[in-house]
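Recap slide: TIGR02302 family protein, sequence and predicted structure.
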Amino acid sequence: MSPAPAPTLAPTMPLSARLHRTRSFARAAILCERAWPGLRMPLAMGGTYLLAGLLRWPQRMPDWLHAAVEAAWLGTALWRAAASLRAVVPPTAAEVDRRIERASRLANQPLLALTDHPALPGAEAVWDAHVSRALGRIGPLRAGWPWPRLTLADRAGVGAMIAALALGVIAAGDHAPSRLAAALRPGWDDADVPLPQIQAWIDMPDYAPGSPIFLQNGTEPDAALQARPASVPDGAALHATLTGLAAKPHGAGADTGAIGIKGLDPTSWQVDAHLTQSGTMRLVARGRTLAQWPISVQPDLAPELHWGPHPGADPQGFRTNLPWTAKQSYGIAMLEAEIRHAGSTRVLRVPITLDGHPRDAHGMATPDLSADPWAGEQVSAVLHARSLSGRESRSTSVSFTLGARSFRDPLARALIDLRRRMALGEEDDPTASDEVAALLDAPKLADARPGAFTELSALATLLGSPDLTAAAADGPHDEAIGVLWYLALYLEDMRHASPEEATAALDIRAAQERVQSQIDRMRRLGSKGHTESEQAELGRRTQALREALQRRMDLLAQKAMRNGTALPDMGDAMNGPSDELQRMMRDMQSDAANGRSDDAMRKLQQMEDLSERMRNATPQDLANLAKQMQAQMQAQQQMQAVHDMIHRETGLLDHAQARLGAQTKAAKAQQTDQDEDQGGGNDLANMPTAELLRRLGLQPPADMQQQQPAPAQTSPQDGLNALDPDERQRQADQRLQDHAISHALTRAVQALSRETHDLTGKDAKKLAAAHDDMVKASRALMDSHDDDAQRQAQKAIKDLSEASKQMRQAMSQKSAGQPIFLPGMGMGQSSGHGSDHGDGDSRGAQSDDQDKSNRDPLGRHTGEGHDAQDTDTKLPDQQQRDRAREIQRELQRRDSDRTRSKDELDYLDRLLKSF
C-alpha cells in the first residue's frame, strides 16, 4: 500500500522558499519514522492506561494508590519515550533531499546540482547553465507523510489497540470523557459515581420572616435553572447538607457571599452561606459540580420617607400635626421626628407610633409638644426611620411652627415667655431670678393665689443661688424651666377652677408624665424592660394616675352638686368618663407589659385628651347635649335600619344561592344520565386524566388543565330547564316573594338615604350604590336570572356594610372632640370598677359585637338549624365510592404507561402515594 500524497508546495512560490519549507517537512517525517521503533512501547503503555481508564480500573483504587500507579506507569512510558527520542539520529541534508526527490518523483536528482561543483576550473558558465536547466524542470515539491516500517506484529498490535479503545469508548458512552479525565486526575470522580444526597434550603433573615425555600439539587440544565432563580432578601442564609461524599466540597461560581463548610462525619458535610449578591452558587467536589443554584438577592434598601402636607401646629388645638409617609420593602421598626431649633443644639426626638411593622404606610401623628420650651417657635424637622434589618434613613427637612397652648392669665403668659427665653439661652439665671422676684409684687398674688406665690418665691431663690447657677453654666436650668411650666398651667386653671381643682389637674399631668417616662424606659430596655420589677413600677405609676383622675372627678362632681349642674341619669346612653379612663388604663398597662409600647403610648395620648376635655356642664352645655343625644339616637336608629336591611338582603342571597344550587345539581344529574346513555360515562380508558381527577374531587395541575380541557359548564337556563315541574313552580313562587321583598328594601334604602342627607348634610354614596344594586337584583328576579340576582345581592350587602362602617366612623369623629361632662345624679361617683361601655365607635357596633360573640374560636357561626350550617360536606354513598375506586384503578393503569409525558407521570406518582 503506497502512502497518501503529501502536501504540495505550489510552484508559484520562489524556489528557495519552497525548498526550505519542503526540507523542514521532510526532516520531520524522517525523524518520525526513525523514532517509531523506540516509541512503540511507550505508546502501547499509554494506550493500555487509557483503556484501563475507560474500564474504570484506576478509579476503583484509593486515591493514593491511583496516583502511585499512574505516576509509575506513565512515568515509565515517558522515560522510555524520552530515551528513544534521544537515540534518534538526525537526517543529513543529502538524505532530506533524496526523500524530497523520491516523494516529488524528480528524475536525475536535480537537487544534487544545488550542492555540486564543476570538477574543472573555467567551466563555471557551463555549470551555471546546467543548474538553471535542472532547476527549471523542478515542479511541485513534496515531503511525503511519515510512513514507518511496520512489521506484521506491529500492525496487529496497533489494530488491536485502536479496536480496544473504540470498544471502550462505545461501552462508556456519554461517560467516556469523564472516565478519561478521572483516570488521569487522581481524586476526581467520573459520571458513573453516584452524586451525594443533597438537602438544600434558604432561611429568610430575621427582618423578613417567611417559610424556607427548598432548592433542587441543580441536576437540570443551566438554562432551566437560570429561568427560575430563587428570589431572596439580602442577608438570607443558604444551608445544605451533603451525605455520601468522601472529599470536602468547596464553593465555585459567582461570589454570592461568605461560605462556611464543616464536616459532620467522614462522608457528611454541612454548607452555610450568607447571601449578599445575586449569581449562581455552585458546589464542587472531586472534579464534579454537585449542585448549582441561581440566586437572585433583592437589595435591602433604606426606608423611603416623605413629609405629608401641612405639618405644624393644629389650628383647632395645641397639638402638633406631623403627617408622614414611610416605605420599606421588609418593614419599618422605628419612626420618629427629629426637631431642631436654630438657636439651640438640642434635638427633640418625637416617637411616631406604627401599627406593627408596616412596609408601606402613611399617617398623621398628633403629639402634645406644648410642654416643650420650643412650643410656638419656628423649628425644622426631619423624619428618621429604622427598618427591621437595621437600615436607617432621614427625610428632607421641613420648617413649621410647634403647637402651643393658649394662656389667658397675664401672670401665666409672663411665666411662659420667661421660660421660652431661658430655654433658648436668651436670659441667664440671675436675670430670670430678678424677673421672677418682680412678678412676686403682683397685686393680691399672695392672697388670691398663695400656692403660686410660694412656688414663685422658691423659684426666685433657686435661680438666684450662686451654686446652682454655676452648676447650670452650660445651659438653662432644667428644673426651673419645668417649674415655670407647671406654675403657668396652675395659674391658667385657677381662672375657672378652685385651687383644689387646679392642683388636681396639675397632679394628673405630673402622673401622666411619670407613666410616659416609664413606658419610654421599658421601650429602651427592650426585652429587659418586661421584668416583674419594671411592670410593678408601671403599675404603681398607673395607680397614681388613676387616683389623680379620681380626685379630680370627685371635685368636679362635688362642684356640680353645689351648682345644680349635675347631669341627670341617662343610663347607657352616656359613657361615664371614669369607666372610659379605667378601660384605657387597663389597655395601656397591658400593652406596655406585652411589649406593645406604641399602642401604650397611643392609649396614654387618648387619656390625656380625655382628661383635658373633662369639665362640669353649663346650662348651654345641657342644651347642646340634648341636641347631640337626639342626633345620636337618630344615627343609631339609621344604623339599626341598615343592619336590618343587611339581614334581609342576606336572606334573599341565601334563597338565590339555594335555587342556583338546585339548578346546578339537576343539570349535572341530567348530563351524567346523557353520558351514561351514550356509553361515555363509564369509558374511563378514553377519559382525559384531568376529568378523572375532577371526578375524584381533586384539582388537576394548571398545565394538565391547559392540555386537557375541562368539561363544558352548564348554563343557568339549562339548570332551570332540568328541574322537575314541582321544583320549578316552587322556585317561581319563592322568586316572586323575594321580588316583593327586594322592591320594599329598595324603597326603604331610598328613604334612609334622604334621612341621612337631612341629618348630616352629605349624600350617602354607599346607600345610593346599594339602591342601584337592589334595583338590578329586582329586575334579575323578575326575569328569573338567579345568577344575576346573586351577584347584585352580594354587591348590595357590601355597599350596605360600607355605609354602616361610615356611619360608625362619623359618630366617633363627632364625639371625639366634645367635652366630657361628669354624670351626677344617676351614675354617682364611680369607683373605677364599672362596666366598660366603650366610646362612640363601640356603641354604634352592638350588632357587630353580637355577631362576633356568636362565633366559635375558629370564627365560625354557632347558631342552630340553618344558621349553624357552615359547610356543604356530605358523605358519599356506595355508588360514589365504587365509582371512585374505578377511577383510582384507571389512574394506576395510566401511571404504569411510561409512554405518557414526564410531567403527567410525576404528578400521578405523587397523587397515588396517598392510596
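Residues 8-184 form one domain.
The two ends are 72 Å apart (CA to CA).
(End of recap.)
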